[in-house]
Amino acid sequence: MSITFISAGAGSGKTTRLMEIIADAIDRGIPPERIVATTFTVKAAEELKIRLQQKFLKAGEFQKASASSAIMVGTINSVCAKILSLFAFEAGMSPRLSVLDEEGSRFFLRKVIESTISDDEMLEFDQLERRFGIFKQDKSQWQDQVRSIIDTARSSAIGTEKFPAMAQKNADTLLHCIGVPLVDYDQAMIDLLDDAIPAMEAGQKQKMQKNTQAYLDVCKQLHDGLKRRNDSWDLWLKLESMSAGKNCDEWPDRVKELAASWKTHTRFHRNVRRYLDRVFTTASRAMANYDEEKKASGFLDFADQESKLYDLLKRDDVRARLAERMDLLVVDEFQDTSPIQLALFVSLSLLAKQTWWVGDVKQSIYGFRGSDSALMEGVLREFQKRGTQIEILGKSYRSRPSLVNWTNALFVPAFANELSADRVKLHPVRDEIPGPSVMHMILEGTNKETQTGQLTGGIIELYESGREVFDKDTRVLRRIRWGDIAVLARSHTDISELTEACKLAGIPLRSSGNGLLATPEAHLVLAALRRLYDQSDTLASAEILGLTEGLTPEDWLEERLEEQKTSAGTKNNLWRCEGHDKNPVLGALEELRPLANLLGPSALLDAVIARCGFDSYLLAWTPNERRVRERLANLEAVRGMVRQYEESAPEGTCNLAGLILWLSDQTNKADTLPESSQDGLSVITWHKAKGLEWPVVILHGSWKDWHDVAWNSIRALKDSPLDLEKPLEGSWIRFWPWPFGEMKTLGSVDVLVDPDVAELTQRGVKEELRLVYVGVTRARDLLVVVTTKKSPNNTSTKSQNLLSNPRPGQTSILLPDGSTVPYECVTPKAPQPKARVADTQTITWFDTDYHPADYPNARLVPSEAEAGTPHIADLVPTPTHAGTIVTITPTLKRTVKGDIRELGKQYHAAFAFFANNEEYTGKHPFSEEIRTVVLAMIATLKNMWPKSVFHTELSVQSLLDGRYIDARLDLLVETEAGFYIVDHKLSEKPASNPDETIAQHATQLSLYQAAVNAQAEKSVLGLWIALPQDGMLVEAIYAKPPAKRG
């Protein structure tokens, strides 16, 4: 046995070294079929195989290139499958068993968990979660916790027979930190609040104080909960930690003192013990049922493969045969493995004649996903005692020298307690390039929304700066592109908020994280599938009508209720599927219904998309080409998800009902939006960035609080010394549920007195340090660290302190070795919003709002600006009189006084709807008179500007003399030469004089023109007012034409 560890820092040429190890073994005569290599991802395995073959082909060694395909290389799960197939008889299994992938396994397990518990047990879980304040978060947690316990047990080879003892151990250790159960304080608290609440209310009447009112509200909530026997423990904790004013005498202090007694409350102790018992008991039963269901269906999952091979390697005959055929074992990214995978590598390493473990302990960041850094470090120490060698890859091929030096200065001292300097420090290979390599971006906003806006502004400034980056392919400097920039965010919530802000700012995105199933196109697909499955699903039908005809909830509900009055029996299920008001999609779904149980999910979805004409609706929703491409790509990604389901679903569940359930389970989990093929900004989490690199990396959220591992963290720990031959022995699952809802801290309770919490906390600090290292080392040319004015100074790691230390005014950073790092510190502003079709409102083909309202005084709203508005004439020139007048028939009749605003809403909405759907003949919410007048107006306008593009209800925002113009254009006509603005006007009285009409609306028109000219590449060529009640289109003319741009 010969084992060598390779310490491969970020960008140090790890893949090249892996290829050299395997190629050297083949050159030394080791048969490729006697080589085993495991990688962390399928992509890494493919890259290794391709690069190995290319190496031999370039050297003209064609036989070796061909023979290299015999190497057993792949992820740990694929290697497990190959070894198990060799020993299928010994394992007592068929070599042809089907294997569930990770998503298929999760879906299957979820169904098993749901079927494991009875209605009474479900009710008890709900009651306990209510006590723990979880109901306030509108999401049950026990199912995820049960699933996590099962996953942890299986990844650490922990049997269900240990579950009862683990439940008790967790309850004992948790409650030991809290207190000893003494008394049930419920009645005492009720009696106290009976007197305290009226007293505090009286004090508030004499002198109102906000903090007293807040305290009083919580008192009332707890009092009501205790009376109803459904109070939650977060209310007790709030009353202990909050403070009231001095207008209520001693009552708040008395309540505060009694509230603190939750620690010794017998019911609190009972609730905690019962919850842990229920979670572990349910996990035990579900785990057993899951195994039975898989066995009955003839399936294995990845964890089964690992477990069976782990057991198989305990047999002497199997170990002997494997030792005979395994000359070389190469393990890539060993630091990211689960405990059972690490145990497998240990067992295989003891059998192979030569073993190489390649990885970087500084990049072990997946503790939340089951990897055990403490176990990994223990295994390394044990191997080192046996004479294991360590090889260090000490060169950085990724980053520029100044960035490498800054990273060294940052992390050599940070990792000093764990690693020697030579295992951290890298020596740069690249040449230096001009410009700063480190930048601090300070967000001065006081709330998250403002800060996100400033960050997008900083991104735009960075792109528009024209700075140069080093192109890896051409080996020369070139101007920065959007695709060169990546923003690393701490959470999926941060990603969602940032991507939305980027879209509003006009920043192209390459990937937007999760959220595919929340897009309108995915909603339409899901609604169609639900309607196809259940003909009586009125909500699915209503969603289809809203997305294809623009019906509001009020409209379709009224229509549906009316239809039910006049129809009977099964006829109700054919609402809008036939007759004069037939909806094309609902009608097509009825034609497809006979195929619902005959076609597989993928074929059925393809038929739905084609027969219902979804692509035409996507085109109608969005006139912008880029957005249309995105929507079509999203539709294709949904098809990809369905194909994934079809490939992984267990037998008996691969049907329409199973597909709908599976898709509902994927929301915000595996519904990743597709990457754009166009140049765009990448927005990704810190964890997902591992293994990737970009010329420019923006680290966002480094100041945020790290995850508290003491609570709601399900981890495997060991209660016995490590035995290299039995590395998993003594493992147990630690889980403390958080019983205080949205509260963040316990205040008076110090859980660090528990040794397991202290150990996990230390692990958490180390893992966060490693995560910071991963984030910093993704950058090749420029690292941008985002910080806020309120970033904490008492951060948990040395790295965070360094990251959050901006240096305004400096152009370089002096490092301890005397070298300098080019530096810049910026304070970005929120970007000026770009002109765009408003697509973040209710998903319809048109926006029913007449005009925006309630804007700050610092904004100019053209629709509210009247003739002669002060200072406007100083900002922009205004039209003075009417020019060309075009007659239009028919005209829209004037209604009685008081109805003009409602008529205006209907007309504007109808124009927006029919402007891009002239041929539409289906049901719509407009009167025939409005439809006729609108179509006549559209025909006239298109005759005036043939081959033009109509942009309706367009939001345009721009800056004018320090103030924003918030413009909502009824119609922007885009021609090849430029733009024409058309504004619809309805009034109670006829327009007596065209010149007076222009004068009345001149300010509004001039602001519209200024807003468009400030944003668009083309100029506004003309201004028109449409008067449908008077049958006129009136051109607005300037006494002196405004200066043209450029």
Would you summarize the structure shown here?
The protein has 35 helices and 30 strands. With 1046 residues, the chain is of the alpha/beta class. A hairpin with a 2-residue loop joins strand 26 (949-960) and strand 27 (963-974).
Q: How is this structure best described in words?
A:
The chain is α/β, with parallel strands linked by helices. Among the domains are: about 1-100 and about 300-390, 3-Layer(aba) Sandwich (Rossmann fold); about 100-180 and about 270-295; about 185-265; about 515-665, PCRA, domain 4, CATH 1.10.486.10; about 860-1035, Lambda Exonuclease, Chain A. The chain is built from 35 helices and 30 strands. An eight-stranded mixed sheet has the order 15-16-14-17-20-11-22-21. Strands 23, 24, 25, 26, 27, 28, 29 and 30 form an eight-stranded mixed sheet that branches. β29 (about 1020-1025) and β30 form a beta hairpin. α15 (about 300-310) runs parallel beside α17 (about 340-350) and α33 crosses α34. It is globular, with a radius of gyration of 34 Å. Residues about 790-800, about 835-860 and about 865-870 have low confidence and may be disordered.
Cα Rg: 34 Å
Beta-strand proportion? 5-15%
Which structural class do the helices and strands define? alpha/beta
The CATH architecture of the domain at 2-100 and 301-392: 3-Layer(aba) Sandwich
Strand order of the largest sheet: 15-16-14-17-20-11-22-21
Task: Give the terminus-to-terminus CA distance.
Answer: 76 Å
Helix content: 40-55%
Highest-level CATH class of the domain at 2-100 and 301-392: Alpha Beta
Number of helices: 35
Indicate the mean pLDDT. Answer: 84
The largest pleated sheet is described as: 8 strands, mixed
Gross morphology: globular
Low-confidence stretches: 792-800, 835-859, 866-871
CATH topology of the domain at 2-100 and 301-392: Rossmann fold
Q: Total strand count, please?
A: 30
